[in-house]
Amino acid sequence: MERLTDRQDVWRWRRQGGGSVGFVPTMGALHAGHLSLLRAAQAQSDRVIASIFVNPTQFAAHEDFDRYPRLPEADQVLLAEAGCDALFSPSVAEIYGEDPHTVVRVEPLGSDLCGRFRPGHFQGVATVVAILLNMLRPDRLFLGWKDYQQLIVLRKMVQDLAMPVEIVGVPTLREADGLAMSSRNRYLTPAQRQQAAGIHQALMAAHQAWQEGERGVESLLACARRVLARADIREIDYVEVRDADTLEPVPAMGRWEKQADPVMLIAVRLGAARLIDNRILSST
Ligand code: AMP
């Protein structure tokens, strides 16, 4: 695996081989979920490049940028063993240069849902991904469904700015009890780790209610909230049901159009961790 740290390295790597390039952006502290993105990329690309960059601009001042887990050696071994062709791990200066004046905002989507609780987060995400795409010029960008709003925000950015890249969404990898794998799960105490399974259980309960014919949004939300309460998860940023394509609010009860899939999205805080998860209610 080649290790690249500056844009000249990347341009050289990009020019030296032919075929299609798949790109997997990450913030490191890699787990099996990241590796499933890598495998999806390998299956659909001739060469795969992953990046590890803990992007300061997507963290608000009070958030966990300083203590975000950084495990560069272990990550490098995981990627090399998984057959990744190249790893790009740039410095902050390499990405942003001396005095950047340009940002990418995807609005109002970026201020909704997680954006309500993390002001500026999606501007940071969209801007860094735009920079990375310009440096790497991949054919396909692989993103996890786990960060569902991020996937929809970046799809919109790529569409609006006519960026020549195809976005591929990859299903969420879960622990045995259903908890979505996340670098932030390591913040959880053993007791909180047990509680955290309640997030997936809440999504499953709403999914089951939908499958049994429940179409009232308030009932679906109440169903999920009951399960969160049973798991003693009290700090809920939001539980929402939205249109899975646009993340817009869904029509009033009973007016579901067949083509609109509903997605339930949940964001909670458990101790030091903010955890998110989602489920398409109409999927089988
Ligand atoms: P992160 O390192 O948390 O920024 O995530 C990098 C990429 O991995 C994003 O596209 C995430 O959506 C994706 N990802 C994170 N956790 C999972 C998971 N459990 N299953 C699948 N993809 C994931």
Give the N-to-C terminal Cα separation: 38 Å
Strand order, largest beta sheet:
1-4-3-2-5-6
CATH superfamily (homologous) name of the largest domain: HUPs
- What's the structural domain tally? 2
Number of strands: 9
Instruction: Report strand %.
Output: 15-25%
Residue windows where pLDDT falls under 50 for at least 5 positions: none
Q: Outline the biggest β-sheet.
A: 6 strands, parallel
Number of helices: 9
- Reported CATH architecture of the largest domain: 3-Layer(aba) Sandwich
- Label the overall shape: globular
Q: What Rg, in angstroms, do the CA atoms define? A: 19 Å
Q: What structural class do the secondary elements suggest?
A: alpha/beta
CATH fold-level label of the largest domain: Rossmann fold
How much helix is in the residues?
25-40%
* Level-1 CATH class name of the largest domain: Alpha Beta
The ligands found in this model are:
adenosine monophosphate
Secondary-structure element series: EHEHEHEHHHEHEHHEEE
Tell me, rounded to a whole number, the average pLDDT: 96
List the helices and strands and how they pair.
Blueprint lengths: L1 E3 L2 H10 L4 E6 L5 H13 L2 E6 L19 H10 L4 E3 L3 H5 L17 H4 L3 H16 L3 E5 L3 H13 L5 E5 L19 H22 L5 H14 L4 E9 L18 E9 L2 E8 L4
Parallel strand pairs: 1-4, 2-3, 2-5, 3-4, 5-6
Antiparallel strand pairs: 7-8, 8-9
Helix pairs in contact: 6-7, 8-9
Bound molecules: adenosine monophosphate.
Structure, described:
The chain is of the alpha/beta class and 284 residues long. It has two domains: 2-170, Rossmann fold (3-Layer(aba) Sandwich), CATH 3.40.50; 183-279, Pantoate--beta-alanine Ligase, Chain: A,domain 2 (2-Layer Sandwich), CATH 3.30.1300.10. The chain contains nine helices and nine strands. The chain has helices at residues 7-16, 32-44, 72-81, 92-96, 114-117, 121-136, 148-160, 190-211, 217-230; strands spanning 2-4, 21-26, 47-52, 86-88, 140-144, 166-170, 235-243, 262-270, 273-280. A six-stranded parallel sheet has the order 1-4-3-2-5-6, with helices on both faces. Helix 3 (72-81) links the parallel strand 3 (47-52) and strand 4 (86-88). The longest helix is centred in the last third of the chain and has 22 residues, at 190-211. It is globular, with a radius of gyration of 19 Å. The mean pLDDT is 96. The protein binds adenosine monophosphate (AMP). Adenosine monophosphate (AMP) binds at residues 26-27, 33-34, 36-37, 143-144, 146-147, 170, 172-173, 180-183.
